[in-house]
Amino acid sequence: MICSIDTNSGFCFGVTRAINAAEEELQHGALCCLGDIVHNGMEVARLEQMGLQTIDNDDLRTLPAHTRVLLRAHGEPPATYWIAQQRGIDIIDATCPVVKKLQERIHACYEAHKNDDALPPQIVIYGQPGHAEVIGLQGQTNNTALVLESVDQIEKIDFTRPIYLFSQTTKSVEGFKALVEAIEARCSSLGKEKCAPFEYHDTICRSVANRVQHIQDFARAQDIVLFVGGKKSSNARVLYNHCLSANPNTFFISEVSEMTPELITQCRAAEHVGICGATSTPHWLMEQCKDVLEREA
Ligand code: SF4
Fold it and tell me: Whole-angstrom Cα distance, residue 161 to residue 4?
């Protein structure tokens, strides 16, 4: 058995930056993080052992002044900054610059069009409802943005109002294209008089999108693939599905304890085993999985 780890898998720039910020700040005392710093339970547990305290929005409202709170790479809606300011909380803003830029674009679009009374605009976000990044993006529109998870939900759009489409950074490029094509097809079937203008912005992060082709090539070259990812990670779900379509012998695991004796035996019998993961998967976790296989081999 030859076991290899995909060199392109693991933390993206934004997550690395947030985790480095947490590690750095922990050296100067107590630190809270609003929500899981990364959608990977194992990495959260590692940082919590170093002293990081994960809090939620209810906790934020009760913290004493000058508590230091880190905002993770996913970003936050304006309401979070407002609450922190009211309570005198010290914010350490580790929002990924790519997400920050997207928030600013959506906010600018909302501000530019919110008073168009004749045809009130509709900001549509292609994303996962309830996802932390999406909540931050909706906040830029005073929570008026419509969130669509897939092209099947196109009926929720009001085609008589101008449509401004953006995407959550970790959604799939193919899904976004399919949504754009479906909206365009609907607009042309309605005719110019009935359908309001449609403007779209492909705001998918290339740090994620560029991984798709690579991870599929990697998966194809293996007999078995172990995809290591957090259960809450949207990016893990997307990349896992791409791996699975390239190689049906792909298994999703979140931690070493999920490597069953049957799975280990199956891997040992294979010639090439590949280990890969999401932008939220720590490299050390993929190494641990490799160690288990090599130890068992
Ligand atoms: S996937 Fe892209 S936008 Fe999201 S945190 Fe990583 S680098 Fe930033």
Answer: 51
